[in-house]
Amino acid sequence: MKNNSDRIKSIDNEVGELHPLLERIFWKMPGVSRVEYKQGTQEFGTDFVVTRIDSLLGEEVHIGIIAKTKPVTQGSADVLRQIEECQEMPRQVGTETVYVKEIWIVTSKNISANVQDFFSKKFKSAKISLVDYARITKWIDDYIPDYWSDIPSELSEYFSDARQSISRVGGAKDFFPL
């Protein structure tokens, strides 16, 4: 039987499996107000644009997400191209045109040890964060733990929403264990 990290590392279908998983996670993250899927001709380097509210400044921050199902290394030419497009191309988020200043490179695999330093030096004007399979596993544990139960995502979302609604009423643990 695979452990949870191995399960994430085994994801090889970027569009069909990783993207839907990430979208579910992003919507559950605190402070996130919008998640826009940008796959296709209008992606300009990003698979998603996640908008979150900076809790200290009260301003929207737009994060460009580059999702991969391959290891990320210094020689990942497609990632380098996507970072450049993320920085340079304006994009439509809702009704406004924005530039992405923060970029997350998310992979279901490993990230080489020197790539963070390489990206930080090469792209000084952007905040770049690297997310590997271990962080995705933690995100699932924190935000969508029903994912591990192998029930259909729609049913899992229903249970998660029901749990949240019941817990707001109070005394939910007596009826619906969290």
Top keywords for this entry?
178 residues, alpha/beta, 5-stranded mixed beta sheet, 6 helices, 39% helix
What report would you give on this structure?
Helices cover 39% and strands 21% of the residues. It is α/β, with parallel strands linked by helices. Strands 1-2-3-6-7 form a five-stranded mixed β-sheet, sandwiched between helices. Strand 6, helix 4 and strand 7 form a beta-alpha-beta unit. The model has no long low-confidence stretch (mean pLDDT 86).
Low-confidence parts lasting 5 or more residues at pLDDT below 50?
A: none
The average pLDDT value, as a whole number, equals: 86
Helicity level? 25-40%
Number of strands: 7
What's the tally of helices? 6
Query: What is the distance, rounded to the nearest whole angstrom, between the alpha carbons of the first and last residues?
Result: 25 Å
How much of the sequence lies in strands comes to 15-25%
Decide which structural class fits the backbone: alpha/beta
Morphology: globular
- Write the element-wise H/E pattern from the N-terminal end onward: HHEEEHEEEHEHH
Q: Taking Cα atoms only, what radius of gyration do you get, to the nearest Å?
A: 17 Å
Strand order of the largest sheet: 1-2-3-6-7
Major β-sheet, in short?
5 strands, mixed
